[in-house]
Amino acid sequence: MSAATSQSNGLMTVERARQFLAQCRDVDEVKELRDKAETIARYQRSRSAAEDSGVSAAVIARRAERRLGELVAELPKAPAGRPKEKNRSHAATNCKIPTLADHGITKSESSRWQAIASVPEKKFEATIAEAIEAKKPPTSAALVRLVRPKKTAAPVAPIPATKATAFDPDEALEAPGVAFDEMMIRWPRTESLAPVVDWLKTKLGMTEQEAKQWPTK
Questions:
Q1: How far is residue 149's CA from residue 176's CA, in Å, rounded to a whole number?
Q2: Which residues have CB under 8 Å from 183's CB, separation 6+?
Q3: Nearest to 76 by CA among 98, 105, 95
Q4: Cα(64)–Cα(22) distance, rounded to whole angstroms?
Q5: Predicted confidence band at 6 (pLDDT cuts at 50, 70, 90)?
Q6: Is there a contact between 100 and 107 (Cβ–Cβ < 8 Å)?
Q7: Residue 119: enclosing H or E segment and its boundaries?
Q8: pLDDT the model gives residue 193
Q9: pTM (2 d.p.)
Q10: Nearest one of 129, 132, 127 to 52, comparing CA atoms
Q11: What pLDDT shows up at residue 113?
């Protein structure tokens, strides 16, 4: 990188970096600046220092990422599909289009930086200014959220209350493998035994006294 440096940590000033990024169209040079600024910013954060150089380095890194997003979007795209057999050798030697990997950029970084580049200029500058005022290093995530709001889980609709199915002793008794005693155990216990007594009298021919005594046995 040919740009002059003027800070004790070897990094150019924020204003000098801003001028450099506005003019530079070399992806590798901009990435070199970004990587150096990000390394210094992380070092400052690891020391929990409140020095201006820590914030300044982060600001430079974010501006470099924004510029990288613009440059990456302009990179020529490789043609879809494989070249024809007769042209494959020629294409491989003379028409190789540099990939993101050739620039040391991952697809995730490319996506994130292009998102930062899409932030409206006024909103971007306001976010950077707020970070500087608060003396807090601006982060890539905060800038990405300006165009990609954090997804929140959709509220779960409450399950509508349904009327409980009434217990049918006849149906329970007819179920395969259900003995009479087991069915009576399943019978919902309520404060009133009248339904139980009525059923025992009607279906099993018990007397009133027998029916009233059965559930208490």
A1: 56
A2: 169, 172, 173
A3: 98
A4: 10
A5: low
A6: yes
A7: none
A8: 65
A9: 0.60
A10: 132
A11: 96
Say if CB 4 and CB 12 are below 8 A apart: yes
For 154, counting Cβ atoms within 10 Å of its Cβ (0-12 exposed, 13-18 middle, 19+ buried), the class is exposed
Residue 25, helix vs strand vs coil = coil
Instruction: Give the start-to-end residue ranges of the domains of the chain.
Output: 14-76+100-144, 169-216
DSSP state letter for 177? T
Pair 1, 32: CB distance under 8 Å: yes
* Two structure tokens written together for 63: 């501006």
- Per the rule left: phi > 0, alpha: psi between -120 and 50, beta: everything else, 61 is alpha
Burial class (CB in 10 A: 0-12, 13-18, 19+), 138: buried
Q: Cβ(11)–Cβ(5) under 8 Å?
A: yes
